[in-house]
Every structure is written in structure tokens, then in C-alpha cells.
Design a protein that fits this description.
Elements (H helix, E strand, L loop, with lengths): L2 E6 L20 H18 L3 E7 L5 H10 L2 E4 L7 H4 L4 H19 L5 E6 L3 E2 L12 E5 L2 E5 L3 E5 H13 L1 H5 L4 H9 L5 E3 L4 E4 L6 E3 L1
Parallel strand pairs: 1-2, 1-4, 2-3, 6-9
Antiparallel strand pairs: 4-8, 5-10, 6-7, 10-11
Helix pairs in contact: 4-5
């Protein structure tokens, strides 16, 4: 049985500020596209026997659409659902990430996929040489600065039962996300109540979108 890898991504970000930053992304559409291609390439290199699901909210050009169609197993583009734009492109980062994750998890349920684990990764980040989550049979999360109340959300691994629990949790916390709760804080509430393994190094690299600083951890 294969695993699923869910990539949450917005290639073309609007020029709208977030609650904590006037700059939403310092990277251009083309740069974000190239970075997300690197995400997909790293998954194919580091994770065997997996199916890739990309959830996006961009009006793709032909180059983008053709690449993702050819290199992802499933493509869920939320762009045409205009009711979601205020959620995904609003000031709340957690509401945007949470909404895309909810829609992706609902899609996974509707498709009745057979899988053992779901890996969730933010587009534009890539799996590095420290990645080894595939060798551990457990739900896996990373603490930020060793703080259990602040959980890294750019990469985690959960089993099928926990996927269902996460979907219910996120739907139940839409109002908190609208109030701009930190997504890392919100996910920490969820993680406290599940079986999991917390790691110091999760094996991910990339660039922080609001400032461009490099992340390795």
C-alpha cells in the first residue's frame, strides 16, 4: 500500500498583507513555481511508493498546468471557487493554510484513497538529506525551538485515523483561524491529544516567504 503526499501551494500570491506582515511574499510567481517544482522533485527522490496530491489556488498558465498535471498524481485547484478567495487570500495565514488543508482532506476522503500515511508539506520547501520520516511508523511532528506549544506545520506525517481527526479539528476551529490564531499554535493544540513522536530534525529546507531567509531543520 502506498502513502500520500499532500502539497499545499499558492504559486501566484496576491499583493495583500498578512496580519503579521505587510509583505505576503517576496518571491515572484515564476520563482514560486520553480521552488514548488523543487518540492515535487525532492519528494520523488526521497519518498518511494507514494502518490502526490497538489492543492493550489492559482489561475494556472499553460506551463504551470502542464507541469503539475504531468508530475503530480492528483491536482486540486481551488481557484474557481471564488467563495474561498477571502479565506485563502485574507490576512489570516492560519485561515488560508487551514482552508486549503480542509479541502484537500475532504477530497482524500471523497476519493476513498487506500494509504498508510499522509505526509503534508508546504510548497516551495523541499526534503533534504536529513529526511528520514519514512523509516518511522508513527505520527511525526516537530517542535519549534523545543516548544510543545508551537508545532512546525511545513512538514508532518500522520496516519489515516489521524487524518480524519485533523479534518474534524480544523473544521471545528474555523472561527479561531478567522481571528488570526497562529497556525503553529493551533496545530499544537491538536498534537497534544494524539499519539505522536516529536522530533528535533524533520528534514526540510526552504525559504521563508515574507522575508526570504533560509530554513533548514
Amino acid at each position: 500500500m502506498h502513502n500520500l503526499v499532500l502539497i499545499t501551494s499558492v504559486i501566484n500570491t496576491p499583493n495583500k498583507q498578512l496580519s503579521y506582515s505587510k509583505i505576503r511574499s517576496i518571491f515572484s510567481r515564476k520563482e514560486r513555481f520553480e521552488q514548488t517544482k523543487k518540492t515535487i522533485q525532492s519528494i520523488k527522490e526521497k519518498l518511494s511508493n507514494c502518490k502526490i496530491i497538489l492543492v493550489e489556488c492559482t489561475d494556472f498558465n499553460d506551463e504551470e498546468y502542464n507541469y503539475f498535471k504531468d508530475n503530480c498524481d492528483y491536482l486540486l485547484n481551488l481557484w474557481n471557487d471564488k467563495n474561498l478567495h477571502d479565506y485563502i487570500f485574507g490576512i489570516s495565514k492560519s485561515l488560508g493554510e487551514g482552508t486549503m488543508t480542509i479541502k484537500a482532506l475532504q477530497y482524500i476522503q471523497q476519493q476513498n484513497f487506500k494509504y498508510n500515511y499522509l505526509y503534508k508539506i508546504c510548497g516551495r520547501y523541499w526534503l533534504n538529506d536529513n529526511f528520514s520520516l519514512n523509516n518511522v511508523e508513527s505520527n511525526i511532528f516537530k517542535k519549534i525551538d523545543n516548544n510543545p506549544n508551537n508545532i512546525f506545520t511545513a512538514l508532518y506525517k500522520i496516519d489515516k485515523e489521524t487524518v480524519n481527526k485533523l479534518l474534524y479539528f480544523l473544521v471545528s476551529n474555523i472561527e479561531n483561524m478567522k481571528k488570526c490564531i497562529g497556525y503553529e499554535v493551533l496545530i499544537a493544540y491538536f498534537v497534544k491529544n494524539i499519539d505522536k513522536k516529536l522530533v528535533d530534525i524533520i528534514g526540510l529546507s526552504g525559504f521563508v516567504t515574507v522575508c526570504g531567509s533560509e530554513y533548514n531543520g
